[in-house]
Amino acid sequence: MAAAKRVPRSTNSETEAIADLGWPDWIDPAATSRLREAILGGRIGHSYLLSGPKGVGKAAAARAFAQALCCTSEERKDRSDPCGRCRACRNVLRGVHPDVETFSLDTQEMLADKPGRGSNLTIETVRRLRSSGALFPMESDRRILIIDDAETLLEPAQQALLKTLEEPPQGVTLMLLTDEPEILLETVRSRCQEVALRPIPQVMVAQALQRRGVAESLAIEVAMLSRGCPGWAIAAAADKKLLQARRDERDSAVRWIASPRYERLVTAFTLGDQFGKRRAEVVGVLQAAIQLLRDEMIVAAQAAGEAGENEPQSVGVTPPAVLFSRAIGATLQCLSDLNSNVRPRLALEAMVVTWPNSEMRDR
Ligand SMILES: [Zn+2]
């Protein structure tokens, strides 16, 4: 069991609130293995793209990777395993190691002349990264430059970054972190080794919380709301506001799905018209809706199994599990449409008409 301690939040990234020694035991093990094997095999790439939903552990993975490359302990298991305790490991964690630099909306705001947090990483930030990449490492063999919020790079900034990706400086590894890899230019993506961090099962999220001393009942509730993102869960277990916001999203999704068809449409139109102002909230409610529909689908499939309905359905009768599956597909499509140029009102309308009529169970 890894020891854990809390450090003050230095950035907006949810995973920054957690400090594990070495590799976090709560991130997608396949992603951890890939990064560790690269170090062990001496095949450290020039550029990685760590992708996955917010709070899945991208920043924690990048931090552990950087620690492994900078760690000076003689006593670690192997080169891919940072000790977490030496001066270098602690400095990486605190964001003060001279060979590890993070570029994000937060660091950009700290360095900006004007107050206010922008919503895009600027070309100046990319220039700063390029200058940083030209430096020689001071304490380790390599410089690790982490670009968080990479999806906020506008095209000119991505073009500037592309020059660095095309002619990577010796001894530099770039790590782009993003929850929306599809937004990046294909030329940028194709020059990075993509390591996707997948959400982990709810039961594993709950276990990670309990290992950190979170009471069982809270751990189970937070895990249920986590969408498989342990970084979010660990932060939310200690942050009532974060947790309440997600409870509210879930309650809104339950009310919306449980309402009669006409009311569902009215809600879809209202949210569609207000989408510009309430984007994050609407996306959150849709993600909660997907989770609820999945739960309903599992219940329906189990009920069908118990009733022995394994033979083909008679014509004209669609089993409930299939209806839920369609509704999930339509809701995922709506999320994708809201990211492209489809009018929000139309996207939401097309989604709600596929939702089956069901009494949402009180959970
Ligand atoms: Zn160390």
Q: Give the radius of gyration.
A: 23 Å
The succession of helices and strands, N to C, reads EEHEHHEHHEHEHEHHHHHHHH
Mean pLDDT: 88
Number-wise, the strands total 7
| Euclidean distance between termini CA atoms | 32 Å
Work out the helicity level: 40-55%
> Given the C-alpha coordinates, what overall shape results?
globular
Adjacency order of strands in the biggest sheet: 4-5-6-3-7
Number of H/I helices: 15
Low-confidence stretches: 1-18
Structural class: alpha/beta
Ligands bound, unique: zinc ion
Percentage of β-strand residues: 5-15%
Largest sheet: 5 strands, parallel
Which key phrases capture this entry?
binds zinc ion; 7 strands; two-stranded antiparallel ribbon; disordered N terminus; alpha/beta
Protein described:
- The protein has 363 residues and is an alpha/beta fold.
- The chain contains 15 helices and 7 strands.
- It has helices at residues 29-40, 58-70, 87-94, 105-111, 123-133, 155-166, 186-190, 202-211, 216-225, 230-237, 240-258, 261-273, 275-306, 320-339, 344-352, and strands at residues 4-6, 18-20, 47-51, 100-103, 143-147, 172-178, 193-196.
- The strands form 2 sheets. The protein has a 5-stranded parallel beta sheet with strand order 4-5-6-3-7, with helices on both faces. Strands 1-2 form a two-stranded antiparallel sheet.
- Helix 6 (155-166) links the parallel strand 5 (143-147) and strand 6.
- Helix 12 (261-273) packs antiparallel against helix 15.
- The longest helix has 32 residues, at 275-306.
- The chain is globular, with a radius of gyration of 23 Å.
- The chain starts with a strand and ends in an 11-residue tail after the last helix.
- 38% of the residues are buried.
- It binds zinc ion (ZN).
- Zinc ion (ZN) binds next to helix 3.
- Zinc ion binds next to helix 3.
